[in-house]
TrEMBL record:
InterPro entries linked: AAA+_ATPase, CARD, DEATH-like_dom_sf, NACHT_NTPase, P-loop_NTPase
Protein name: Protein NLRC5-like
Major site of localization recorded for this protein: cytoplasm
Domain NACHT: 258-376
Location within or outside the cell: Cytoplasm
Record keywords: Cytoplasm, Immunity, Innate immunity, Leucine-rich repeat, Repeat
Taxon lineage: Eukaryota, Metazoa, Chordata, Craniata, Vertebrata
Length: 715
């Protein structure tokens, strides 16, 4: 609906002040109802606000450049206007030149003011909240309101034909967007390179679970952790996978004017989220003249030596090709159009003063700041006005999407709950995907090897980019801290808890495997413990400690056959791989090879003997399931991890080459393990009982490989 124009109203400065006051308030009310001034011509509309325009128009070069680009003013006219002695005279000259040219020129001026209002009209005046404010506030004519009441023609994509700021600023924005796109590509290329042995996946951002609710209270954490420890293993592992939420997206985070605090465990996806925000900004249209800067604080030591805003933005990040001072002034004057991302800040107090001032809003007070930090460091950024977003990793649906992208639809990770739940941490999901080979048909590497890759990758990623060729030496220097963490992990596993209360290690690389855990002792006291990002990673470290202390291994064998400690069996497969003849390089960095060799001489035989003897003492008629967790299938999985033909032959000989798997539920990994054990016997065939087994098509394809070594089998 069209509205009738106020005839004299607030925009006519020749009327008495009382009329101005009443007209201004009335026009506010009318425009608030969605109406617009339409009966005045563009030239009349400009003339009625001339005094206010002369007084308040800013960024005149932007107006002049747009008027020149739209052919309203000639090059000669622009030069004469620029030669005026001050901005007031330049504004008068602009208005005089435009109004002399008639209606179309005035319309173009109004359109330019409307599109560039953020930079040419300054900040909008807040609406009056109280009547008694009117007498003082009304003296400032609201040009934002004035321009919004003019009725413009419907024009498609007109905004792209106008400059929002000085041309050097637009060129600098283009340069920043090019760098943003490069940063995003390089981030995903680093992940893609780890997968080059498999195929050539088109990696991009996989949606993460983002939670904007306040952090869970310590009492709830304790209650939740206690509840988790009482769950069965499958249910416990599933608790690590966050529920799928569509509460907020990277696009929402880009659009909000609020500064943002991204909080999350190591490897949970904070950098991936920051890079996605960067990419979305870079690919956005150029209607707005805005700037985005991304600093990975972990990689750029030069950030800590910056002494000024100019040094940080131009020397450390990217320098303008032209108009350096003009760009800097535009950034300072229009800081609401600036976004700065600081990724990986771990010690705010040691940051450069420039960084601290930006985060605390002492510099560029209206700029949007995005900080990515771990929960340990969150207290350093408890500033008012920040939107807290907790990054929780992949939901189960997104885990499956990520694995399908990296490994194809025919992968077997989904059948292994340990690996599936591990993949809720995107960095672990990447290493799981990278640990599956390309040409080994459907057979993955051992599970333990995936955890070894995770450990090495985490240490490298958190070591200020130690090169791969120097990683082993770096691990040797950290062996004391790693084995100390392994000791804490072992005793926590024995207690069947995830709370590492006694941990006192302060090395950031070692702590990258952990997350903070608040435990409320009473109403006035809370302590902060730590927990591994995933329980199976804790079990892997516990296995490391056992191999450093082999005198404890026989006790663990016995515990595995008891109801109270049968969960300790999950350490055994890890030890089998770490002790194999082709032991991983990781082990030689932590434990002398002579010690490992000495342990392996008795380990496999005693493991098989212990567990087979435990099985032979079972009463087949009893309903008590004590010790039944350690069965033939479990031993096959341990031997598959060991990749030891000698241990497999010893095992088959103990069973007189008869494997009874009747009634078992064989997932693809179990089928790989059985097939591996059976194929190690070249001289004697094995009888295989598969009566009433449940097996998938994937699993059957694995079993087919061993049939030439099978004497007879039941299906």
């Amino acid at each position: 609906m069209q509205r009738e124009t106020l005839s004299s109203g607030c925009i006519n400065i020749s009327v008495p002040y009382r009329s101005v006051k009443l007209g201004f308030c009335a026009e506010h009310a009318l425009c608030a109802e969605g109406m617009a001034c339409t009966s005045q011509s563009a030239s009349d509309y400009v003339m009625t606000a001339r005094v206010h325009l002369v007084r308040e128009l800013t960024n005149l070069p932007v107006l002049l450049e747009n008027l020149y680009q739209q052919r309203v003013l000639s090059d000669e006219e622009v030069s004469k206007i620029e030669a005026q002695k001050d901005d007031y005279d330049r504004t008068r000259a602009i208005l005089d030149s435009v109004t002399k040219k008639g209606e179309e020129a005035c319309y173009q001026l109004l359109r330019i003011i409307d599109i560039t209002r953020k930079r040419t009209l300054g900040r909008p005046t807040p609406l009056l909240k109280h009547k008694n404010e009117a007498s003082s506030d009304i003296k400032k004519f609201d040009l934002h309101h004035w321009i919004s009441c003019f009725s413009f023609k419907e024009e498609s994509q007109v905004d792209t034909n106008y400059l929002q700021g000085p041309r050097p600023c637009h060129r600098y924005q283009t340069k920043l967007k090019s760098k943003a796109q490069k940063t995003s590509r390089e981030f995903w290329m680093a992940s893609k390179n780890l997968l080059k042995d498999y195929k050539n996946p088109q990696l991009s951002y996989t949606p993460l679970v983002l939670d904007t609710q306040c952090s869970i209270s310590p009492s709830k954490v304790k209650k939740f952790k206690n509840k988790k420890s009482k769950l069965s293993r499958p249910k416990k592992l599933r608790t690590y996978i966050p529920e799928n939420k569509t509460e907020i997206s990277p696009t929402d985070l880009l659009k909000t004017d609020k500064s943002i605090l991204l909080v999350g465990k190591p490897g949970i996806g904070k950098t991936a989220l920051a890079c996605e925000i960067l990419r979305l900004w870079a690919e956005r249209d150029h209607k707005e003249l805005d700037y985005m800067f991304y600093f990975d604080v972990r990689e750029k030591a030069s950030i800590q030596t910056t002494t000024s805003l100019e040094d940080l933005l131009f020397s450390v990040y990217r320098e303008p090709d032209e108009g350096k001072e003009e760009v800097l002034q535009d950034i300072k004057r229009n800081s609401e159009n600036v976004t700065i991302i600081f990724d990986g800040i771990t010690d705010f107090s040691s940051c450069a003063e420039t960084v601290q001032k930006l985060v605390e809003k002492d510099l560029l007070p209206d700029a949007k700041t995005i900080i990515a930090c771990r929960p340990d460091d969150e207290e350093d950024f408890s500033f008012e006005g920040y939107l807290r977003v907790e990054v929780k990793g992949f939901s189960e649906q997104m885990i499956m999407k990520y694995l399908s992208t990296t490994l194809g639809e025919d992968h077997k990770v989904s059948s292994n709950l340990e690996l599936l739940s591990l993949c809720h941490v995107p960095m672990y999901a990447l290493m799981v995907a990278a640990s599956f080979s390309k040409e080994d048909s459907l057979q993955p590497r051992t599970i333990t090897e995936i955890y070894i890759n995770i450990v090495r990758f985490c240490l490298q990623k958190n070591s200020k980019k130690i090169k791969t060729k120097n990683l082993n030496l770096f691990i040797e220097t950290l062996s004391g801290e790693i084995l100390y963490l392994a000791k804490i992990a072992f005793y926590a596993t024995q207690r069947k808890t995830v709370n590492l209360e006694e941990l006192s290690c302060g090395d950031s690389c070692v702590l990258s495997f952990l997350k903070p855990l608040d435990i409320k002792l009473d109403c006035t006291e809370t302590i902060t413990a730590r927990a591994f990002l995933h329980y199976t990673v804790q079990e892997f470290f516990a296995a490391l400690w056992l191999l450093k202390n082999p005198d404890q291994i026989r006790d663990v064998f016995q515990q595995c056959l008891t109801e109270e400690k049968k969960y300790m069996k999950h350490l055994i497969p890890f030890m089998c791989r770490l002790l194999s003849e082709r032991s991983p390089r990781l082990m030689s960095c932590l434990i002398p090879e002579e010690e490992l060799k000495k342990t392996s001489e008795w380990f496999f035989k005693e493991m098989i003997t212990y567990f087979l003897s435990g099985l032979s003492t079972q009463d087949p008629t009893t309903t008590d399931d004590r010790g039944l967790d350690v069965d033939i299938l479990f031993l096959c999985q341990c031997l598959y991890e060991s990749q030891s033909p000698k241990a497999c032959i010893y095992f088959l000989d103990k069973l007189d080459y008869h494997l009874d798997l009747s009634g078992e539920n064989l997932d693809p990994y179990s089928c790989c393990a059985v097939a591996y054990v059976v194929t190690q016997s070249k001289k004697r065939k094995t009888s295989l009982n598969l009566e009433d087994v449940a097996v998938s098509e994937q699993g059957m394809r694995c079993l087919f490989k061993c049939l030439e070594n099978v004497k007879w089998y039941d299906v």
